[in-house]
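Structure (tokenized):
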């Protein structure tokens, strides 16, 4: 078992590992246990990379195990307790429990959200609250707000910072913390959605019921196109066909479906297919339906 660093490097840096006697052929697997409570990584090559997450000051030692197995014979060899030392890195965390007025964070969707912005009034003052576990030893921070504004340099003593968003949609907020004494830095990215609950529906231009095979086209309600960027759409029919998916940017004025099978006599309520138009973004979702007899 070899690793490519002879002296400790920052824990946030990917480290390359290799088995010193690589086996040829596809019958061998390599199971890496990096000793940091991450899942065992099993790959089919003798080369892999791993990043250790260790925050604070000083060094951290990990014991790495490698098991090489022959998938045909079931025989294996394990190399135990190969030590590797990394320098602990500064933590770059923002508050996600809405402490001290921090912008709301949806834990289930893993995103900061504001659901009160509209096309007519998109502005929102985002508040980021420092939650770094190494704040006392961090030398400074930078934040890229993800909206093409300049990257902001922030003092090591910051407790909170605000930024004004003027557009709707998703933004990637990237915060970087630095420790000048160790020359280590850590970067963490959060998502922010600035928008509102989505609306929309399908408008039928006529009778959608007919004899198979036939195709039918629905108009997308014009109000649907006012939804914020980051809204997604799934058009589906429970006739065994594949759903059609759209983003706010790719949503078409009309949606056509080909009916090739009958809805009669197959156990469907009312002998009708259900057409569903699911509309979703981090603020909410709705799924208007219509019934079709074919």
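Design, position by position:
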């Amino acid at each position: 078992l070899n690793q490519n660093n002879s002296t400790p490097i920052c824990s946030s840096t990917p480290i390359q590992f290799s088995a010193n006697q690589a086996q040829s052929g596809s019958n061998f697997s390599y199971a890496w246990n990096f000793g940091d409570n991450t899942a065992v990584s099993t790959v089919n090559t003798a080369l892999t990379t791993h990043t250790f997450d260790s925050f604070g000051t000083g060094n951290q030692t990990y014991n790495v195990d490698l098991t090489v197995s022959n998938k045909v014979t079931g025989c294996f060899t394990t190399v135990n307790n190969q030590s590797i030392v990394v320098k602990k890195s500064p933590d770059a965390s923002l508050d996600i429990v809405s402490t001290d007025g921090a912008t709301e964070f949806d834990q289930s969707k893993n995103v900061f959200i504001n659901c009160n912005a509209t096309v007519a009034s998109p502005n929102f003052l985002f508040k980021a609250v420092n939650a770094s576990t190494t704040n006392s030893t961090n030398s400074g921070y930078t934040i890229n707000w993800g909206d093409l504004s300049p990257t902001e340099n922030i003092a090591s003593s910051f407790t909170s910072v605000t930024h004004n968003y003027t557009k709707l949609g998703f933004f990637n907020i990237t915060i970087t913390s630095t420790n000048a004494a160790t020359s280590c830095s850590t970067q963490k990215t959060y998502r922010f959605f600035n928008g509102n609950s989505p609306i929309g529906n399908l408008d039928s231009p006529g009778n959608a019921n007919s004899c198979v095979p036939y195709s039918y086209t629905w108009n997308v309600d014009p109000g649907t196109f006012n939804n914020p960027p980051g809204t997604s759409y799934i058009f589906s029919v429970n006739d065994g066909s594949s759903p059609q998916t759209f983003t706010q940017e790719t949503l078409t004025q009309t949606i056509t479906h080909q009916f090739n099978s009958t809805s009669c006599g197959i156990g469907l309520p009312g002998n009708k297919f259900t057409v569903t138009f699911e509309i979703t973004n981090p603020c909410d979702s709705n799924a208007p339906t219509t019934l079709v007899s074919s």
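Reviewer-requested clarification: Residues 115 and 270 are 38 Å apart (CA to CA). The mean pLDDT is 93.
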